Amino acid sequence: MKIGDLYFSFTNPSFFMLLTLSLVLLLVHFVTKKGGGTLVPNAWQSLVEFLYDFVLNPVNEQIGGLSGKQKFFPRILVTFTFSLFRNLQGMIPYSFTVTSHFLITLGLSFSIFIGITIVGFQKNGLHFLSFLLPAGVPLPLAPFLVLLELISYCFRALSSGIRLFANMMAGHSLVKILSGFAWTMLCMNNLFYFIGDPGPLFIVLALTGLELGVAISQAHVSTISICIYLNDAINLH
Fold first, then answer.
1. What pLDDT score does 57 carry?
2. Cβ of 41: how many Cβ atoms within 10 Å?
3. Is residue 103 part of a domain?
4. How far apart are CA 221 and CA 164, in angstroms?
């Protein structure tokens, strides 16, 4: 689609993010329409309650559950659920891993970084800038520390996106390479390669299990990072 000199395309990331959103909404539909509020929760309701508690614990630990600070919980829960579904969706054969694209993870991390900065200014005003200068610092070192703290703070946006992208991309690439290697050995008309093929196949199965753990842990790590950054923005030092 062309608008002036700009071109817009409905790409694979767009399609699979829309598919992820549809899966999340479908899960919510099953909970609210088929089991929500029942005395004995069904499997869908138990799953959503588990996800709810799983995210609520770090929010209470890092930010605190008092003084209205849980108002950030819905945003964090949406981020965790969306990241978890995107990561796990990429484990399906012939699927597409959205989080293995750096621009996608960078866009997500930058949007969260900007939002947290806005929250910091709303909560503390210009006093929010005091986190750039820890208490008790000698005056001659103040300019250098302010610069270092500012660079460190800005790199939070990059680090969150790079960590998720690098972990998902590295693991998926390794699984793909070893899968292709195992399939090539299996298809060769040679008894030696056929006998030796279970070795790479076993490694692929082990890496697949490891990637499932990475997909879940990376969603959790991203959630913890958001909670820590929010705590810094709200409570400063």
1. 83
2. 15
3. yes
4. 9
For 7, the enclosing helix (H) or strand (E) is strand 6-7
Write out the H or E segment, with its range, that includes residue 172: helix 142-187
Q: How far apart are CA 17 and CA 91, in angstroms?
A: 14
Tokens describing residue 33: 């329409």
Q: What is the pLDDT of residue 67?
A: 52
Domain span at 84? 45-235
Per-residue pLDDT, 65 = 55
The token pair at 218 is 């990376």
| Residue 17 covered by a domain | no
Nearest C-alpha neighbor of 207 from the set 176, 181, 185 = 176
pLDDT tens for residues 179-213?
887 777 777 777 666 666 677 778 888 888 888 88
Which residue stretches of the chain have pLDDT < 50?
none
Cβ–Cβ < 8 Å for 102, 160: no
Within-domain flag for 10 = no
Side chain identity at residue 201, one-letter code: L
Q: What are phi and psi of 105, to 5 degrees?
A: -65, -35
Q: How many domains does the chain have?
A: 1
- Which of 234, 103, 106, 95 minimizes the C-alpha distance to 176? 95
Exposure on the CB side of residue 203, measured as CA atoms within 13 A: 15
**Domain contains 170:** yes
